[in-house]
């Protein structure tokens, strides 16, 4: 092999590596600024989201509007739903992290729930008719999993500034704000922990569709006052 051919092959590989690096950096930029993909690990948001769904999440859904009752949000549960992890990590953690970044395995720190109360709201369950109440108004929750009651646990909370009260649509199996009533913070999640809103299911192929109730359109389609 001549010197010219060897140099040409080296240049070719360098262009390939450079191209892969540019694509990776572009994807990283998109996923950290505009869109991301998350794996749904549980039944807590059925029937809207099913176990194993991969959802496309808009990180800019709430850039130009406030989070509203009825919005479905993806959020970082560290410090609330899960304790802070100060471990240094290892190779196994790095591999798992790569799988989470690719949307192939669930991220135990990330949750998706529906907003039932925003700052200033009083959320109570249940009313005399067995419904959730927000600011004294009974709520008809059309998105609930068939057969589920609004809540088997009775509660009444006042949502302070900068916080949200979140619950899953499949109430009987959902770990949500109700589960943390006795914990520090009382089950209330900081708005600063919200990553964005799921706008579409992208996998499996047979489940690909736009999530109208969670698209961040600003329209309240959840039957909340």
TrEMBL record:
EC number(s) stated in the UniProt entry for this protein: 3.4.21.89
SUPFAM superfamilies in the cross-refs: LexA/Signal peptidase
Predominant subcellular localization, coarse grouping: membrane
Residues that span the membrane, as ranges: 12-34
Domain (Peptidase S26): residue spans on this chain: 18-203
Catalytic reaction list: Cleavage of hydrophobic, N-terminal signal or leader sequences from secreted and periplasmic proteins
GO biological process: signal peptide processing
Membrane topology, from the record: Single-pass type II membrane protein
Lineage: superkingdom: Bacteria
Molecular-function GO term, any one: signal peptidase activity
PANTHER family listed in its UniProt record: CHLOROPLAST PROCESSING PEPTIDASE (PTHR43390:SF1), SIGNAL PEPTIDASE I (PTHR43390)
Protein name, per record: Signal peptidase I
């Amino acid at each position: 092999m001549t010197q010219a051919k060897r140099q040409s092959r080296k240049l070719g590989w360098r262009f390939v590596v450079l191209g892969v690096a540019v694509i990776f950096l572009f994807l990283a930029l998109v996923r950290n600024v505009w869109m991301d993909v998350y794996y749904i690990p549980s039944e807590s948001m059925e029937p809207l989201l099913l176990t194993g769904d991969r959802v496309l999440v808009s990180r800019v859904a709430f850039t130009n509007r406030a989070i509203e009752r009825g919005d479905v949000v993806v959020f970082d549960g560290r410090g609330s739903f899960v304790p802070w992890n100060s471990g240094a990590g290892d190779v196994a953690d790095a591999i798992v992290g790569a799988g989470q970044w690719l949307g192939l395995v669930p991220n135990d720190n990330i949750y998706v729930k529906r907003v039932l109360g925003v700052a200033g709201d009083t959320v109570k369950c249940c009313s005399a008719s067995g419904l959730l109440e927000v600011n004294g108004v009974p709520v008809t929750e059309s998105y609930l999993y068939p057969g589920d009651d609004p809540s088997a646990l009775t509660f009444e909370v006042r949502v302070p500034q900068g916080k949200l009260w979140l619950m899953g649509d499949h109430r009987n199996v959902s770990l949500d704000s109700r589960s943390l009533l006795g914990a520090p913070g009382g089950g209330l999640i900081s708005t600063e922990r919200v990553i964005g809103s799921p706008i579409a299911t992208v996998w499996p192929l047979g489940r690909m569709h736009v999530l109208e109730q969670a698209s961040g359109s600003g329209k309240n389609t959840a039957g909340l006052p």
